[in-house]
Design brief:
mainly alpha; 26 helices; 0% strand; globular
């Protein structure tokens, strides 16, 4: 794999491939250049989706000077998750300090983090593969590790974790988790558990793990990843659990039992309160996620350009085992996956570990928490598990088919090249917001948010040129369509009102009445809470022509919604601001 960079004799080249420092140097040089080249076209794109709420509107991130007070402000400005994800917020603030809110710089920082993660994946993979297949030479261990790292790093499902700026929370959490995992397995593979090993374990568990959680809560999965390593790979290599493994098992089971009791107690009511703003219940989410896992597997194993999207809100919610019927099939399939992992743990330990790694990686965001149903960035670390599985199958096959190695290497190169080409196409698409929204709308006509994003861009095009009737008609059709797709969606109605105002006519009252009804009777999603703020701002700038009594009606409808009680004071302050700005 690295021979193309070395013209020395085969024997000398093989000796160099057995030297870790030589191989790591070349991978650390070539991989970032490849990643930057593939993602470069996407760096010219803009902020989108949750970037505005989590970055652009956070005044605490506007770090003009590097001071203790500005650091404290950045660390405490986040509202995502229970902790606010302070380390991720600080990284956004540092970006602002150096370049302001320049999306190119923010996205480039994400690419750099992704490159560092690719190197960590390479190092972790070599250690796991060498532990699972000690009969292979060092050269083969590096080749397998390189293939795993490149397939993981260049897969198109990783794009939203790189070019969707706020998902730095995901990649940065993975960065510290991978360091922690690397330190743990390195320490555990030492023959003598001395001072160096103690320092490595201490750094992994007391430094890197907390930092991972402080970037995003998915870092809490680290102990379970370690459990999979201890109880599958290390147990297989050692012939059983050692004293550390047995002690760890007892601690893990005890901790998990305590956590389960807490989640079932009234003390955890805050955790389930998020379902108040969702259009699905806990049971419906669990049933739906059983199908979503297979959707992720489809995106990963058969990646096609049209299948990927920023949004996947076109997934139908499962309301029963047979509604739709694929729910029961998915549940049976998931049980089959667990059974296969258990049965392969001795004969194919790396394959079993990879399957466990994939499922563990989805153990937080794809189970009980009241989050949205499906997002590609949730596969950032879990994808690594599937790469381990494929590497394990390949290693076992090639062990008995030496003559097929050249064919296997060629096939692997073709697959990696294909993955990189799809990612490059997606990156080019994400480099232009107009192209992204319009093309994704064609590929995902049943996605409410995708169609709404396309409508927003068409709305802006009509606003810039009132002779562009094509943009007006298509924007109007999109706004009407999203209202039909999701009976709880409200922003499309605001878009229709705005279009009427741009035409210089009074808004259709059926749209105002329907918006008021949805604000009063349907769950208030996070994006819905800004509708009234947007109306106030649009009224101030003259971008909307609602009458005072219509605006008051919308405020009163929102205040009557049970889900708005926690933000009642904020809503009243916006209403007061509207009246103070409204000319008599």
């Amino acid at each position: 794999m690295w021979g193309v960079f070395n013209c020395a004799s085969p024997n000398r080249r093989n000796r160099r491939l057995n030297r870790p420092s030589f191989v790591i140097f070349w991978f650390a040089l070539v991989w970032p250049l490849l990643a930057v080249a593939i993602y470069w076209a996407g760096l010219g794109g803009s902020f989108f989706f949750d970037d505005e709420a989590n970055i652009l509107r956070r005044t605490g991130l506007r770090m003009d000077f590097f001071t203790i007070e500005s650091i404290r402000s950045a660390l405490s400005t986040g509202t995502s998750g229970p902790s606010g994800r302070p380390v991720s917020q600080l990284s956004f603030a540092l970006n602002y300090l150096w370049t302001g809110f320049d999306p190119f710089a923010f996205k480039l920082t994400n690419v750099i983090i992704h490159c560092l993660n690719g190197i960590l994946v390479f190092l972790v993979s070599e250690k796991l593969i060498s532990a699972a297949y000690p009969s292979y030479g060092k050269r083969d261990h590096w080749l397998f590790a390189g293939a795993v790292a490149l397939a993981w790093g260049l897969h198109p499902i990783q794009l939203t974790s790189v070019l969707y700026v706020v998902q730095r929370m995901t990649s940065l959490s993975a960065f510290f988790l991978l360091i922690a995992f690397l330190l743990h397995i390195t320490a555990r593979r030492r023959e003598i558990f001395g001072k160096t090993a103690i320092l490595q374990v201490t750094a992994a568990w007391l430094v890197c793990w907390p930092l991972s959680i402080a970037c995003k809560e998915t870092g809490v999965l680290f102990p379970i990843f370690v459990a999979a390593y201890e109880f599958i790979l290390r147990k297989d290599a050692q012939g059983g659990l050692d004293k550390f493994g047995r002690t760890y098992l007892i601690l893990l089971v005890g901790t998990a039992s305590g956590l389960a009791l807490y989640m079932l107690s009234p003390l955890a009511d805050w955790l389930w309160a998020g379902y108040e703003i969702r259009s699905f219940t806990l049971t419906e989410r669990l049933l739906t996620e059983s199908r979503v896992i297979w959707s992720y597997l489809g995106l990963i194993l058969t990646p096609g350009f049209e299948a990927f999207s920023l949004y996947h809100d076109d997934v139908a919610v499962s309301t029963g085992l047979l509604r739709p019927w694929t729910t029961l099939a998915a549940l049976i399939g998931n049980a089959g996956l667990l059974a296969a992992i258990w049965s392969m743990r001795k004969r194919f330990p790396l394959v079993a570990f990879g399957g466990a790694f994939f499922l563990i990686g989805h153990g937080l965001e794809s189970t009980v928490l009241p989050l949205e149903i499906m997002h590609e960035h949730r596969n950032y670390l879990p994808l690594l598990g599937l790469c381990f599985m494929l590497a394990g199958f390949a290693a076992d096959f090639l062990r008995t088919a030496e003559k097929q190695k050249k064919i296997a290497i060629t096939l692997c190169a073709v697959i990696i090249a294909y993955l990189g080409s799809i990612t490059a196409l997606r990156a080019h698409l994400y480099g232009n917001e107009w192209n992204r929204t319009q093309i994704e709308a064609q590929h995902h006509p049943d996605s409410t948010r995708t169609i709404y994003d396309a409508a927003i861009m068409l709305d802006a095009a009509f606003d810039a040129n009132k002779d562009n009737q094509f943009a007006y008609v298509l924007a109007r059709n999109h706004y009407l369509h999203v209202g039909d797709l999701d009976p709880n969606f409200k922003l499309g109605l605001l878009g229709l009102i705005h279009l009427d105002c741009m035409l210089g006519k009074s808004p259709d009252h059926k749209f105002i009445d329907e918006l008021a009804r949805r604000l009063r009777e349907t769950p208030l999603a996070p994006a819905d809470r800004n509708i009234l703020f947007n109306i106030v701002e649009m009224s101030r700038t003259g971008a909307i022509c609602l009458e005072k009594n219509d605006v008051d009606k919308l405020f009163e409808s929102t205040l009557a919604n049970p889900g708005a009680q926690s933000m009642r004071t904020l809503l009243l302050s916006w209403q007061t601001e509207y009246h103070s700005n409204k000319k008599p």
